[in-house]
Amino acid sequence: MARDFIERIYEAAALPEFWPDLFQDLATSLDFAGAAMHSINPDFQRYAASPEVAELTRRFIFDGWQKRNLRGDRAKALDHPGFVRDQDIASDDEIDTHPFYAEFLRPAGLGYGAASVVDCPSGDVIAFSFERPWSDGPVPVERVGELDKLRPHLARAAVFSTRVDLERAKAQAAALAGLGLPAAVLGSRRKVLAANEQFAALPGQLRIGAGDRLSVDDPASEALFAIALAGRVEGEGLSVPLKAHSGAQPAVMHVLPVRRSARDLFSLAEWLIVLTPLGPGSAPLASILSGLFDLSPAEARVAREVIAGETVTAIAAKYALRESTVRTQLRAVFAKTGTSRQSELVAACIGGIGARPAPPSGEMAPMRELSDLVGSPRVDGSRLGG
Prior knowledge:
This protein is α+β, with helices and mostly antiparallel strands. The protein folds into three domains: 2-161, Transcription factor LuxR-like, autoinducer-binding domain (Beta-Lactamase), CATH 3.30.450; 169-277, PAS domain (Beta-Lactamase, 2-Layer Sandwich); 295-374, Arc Repressor Mutant, subunit A (Orthogonal Bundle). 42% of the residues lie in helices and 16% in strands. It is built from 18 helices and twelve strands. The protein has helices at 2-14, 19-29, 54-62, 70-78, 86-89, 92-97, 99-105, 141-161, 172-177, 197-200, 219-229, 260-265, 285-293, 297-307, 312-319, 323-337, 342-349, 370-374; strands at residues 34-39, 47-49, 84-85, 110-119, 125-133, 183-186, 192-195, 206-208, 214-216, 238-242, 251-257, 271-277. α15 (312-319) packs across α16 (323-337). It is globular. Mean pLDDT is 76; it is low at 165-170, 260-267, 280-284, 351-372 and 376-386.
């Protein structure tokens, strides 16, 4: 079932009219009444919702409830790279009395839900919400875990879906011209079938070689790109960081699989490549880590602490975890980001996102190698300290 939903998520990325039915089926499978996503951008108001909550979402956007949204404000302030429940961010008294619940949700028979805020690399912000009937009580913890497995796919698809309306596209060139971002369509063996002018003018991060084959200049990013195209990532989609190069600012390359009826639109297309730039005012670090590298909430938390200069011991103590657990999560972070030491992780995640003041002397611990962070190897190949 999860695989089918992942495929449908990427299908909706190319054909936005599929979002409502997808949200309804996904909500029903997880015991929610409905689901929706909306942009948190006063200059670009857009939303998609399942039929059960479509009118409620319209009122939320256009009747001023977005400004009185306790759930959204708390979720964004929490900076958690996953879904959160109402009871995680609000007290029982607030859920009982706050106007967002008492005057907006409960008259519609709702009152409990789970939400996640996705900060896109371009600075756009997208919120997802899954609404549960008030009579069913709070959202069970296990439902949040199931939503978190789908969140990276929802985030990538939504980034694309909020930027382009392929309903109006009649051909490959017309669709690419309407993106407003560097984009290309790939066929088999990385062959570039079509690309817009922005993509063709990229100064060096990507290269179109013999046979119109697309490659990435940076070895670490090229390795992640190869993994995505080989289908070794669940859901066959990935977001790849691109370092600053030859005057080009850092960017994120979204590798989106073309599936089902979306394939009809793009003819021989197998992959849609869309770039979003990273610049001043980009997304908070935790959201970038989670959205770009498919890190779990726990992995994103560990990565954020390591980038800040914390040791494994300090992270374990801070979050009441075993050091072995932190090391396991850190190994996953290095594997997913294509790095092997702290300095590389910092460079991959924040090294090019605008100028940042240097920390005071002694504020950040010295950069450490992978072996220093996760432990030294034993003779049998295991690690010390955990």
